[in-house]
Specification:
This protein is mostly helical. It has helices at 10-28, 31-41, 77-86, 100-110.
Length: 113
């Protein structure tokens, strides 16, 4: 109930829930688009379908691992994004090369591996 005694209309509530769901879905990224980013930017150094090392570590089951090889930090969206932005241990930084949406999509893709 609002301070003036009015209730939110069911239509307003439904639209609010829909809008929140759309924003949430956008923030999670597209694994399909992330696969394209991976193929263009990452596949030359990282394998998606194995844990075997190419130039960099294989990324299969990345989000099932306890820690990132490059930083030793727990695997999370933010720690993976940090590696993408800053690079490390021979990996170049992609902060200027990938948009925020590209990184979000890439992380969504890496979660499917």
């Amino acid at each position: 109930m609002y301070p003036d005694g009015l209730h939110a209309s069911p239509r307003f509530v439904a639209l609010s829930i829909f809008a929140a769901a759309m924003i949430s879905a956008q923030n999670k990224g597209s694994a399909e688009k992330g696969n394209e980013v991976f193929d263009e930017q990452c596949a030359s150094c990282h394998s998606a379908y194995t844990s075997d090392r190419k130039v960099g570590p294989g990324l299969k089951f990345l989000f099932a691992k306890e820690k990132l090889e490059s930083s030793g930090k727990p695997v999370s969206d933010s720690s993976v994004r940090e590696v993408l932005d800053k690079g490390g241990k021979g990996m170049p930084a992609f902060k200027a090369n990938l948009s925020e949406d590209d990184k979000t999509d890439l992380i969504a893709y890496l979660k499917t591996l």
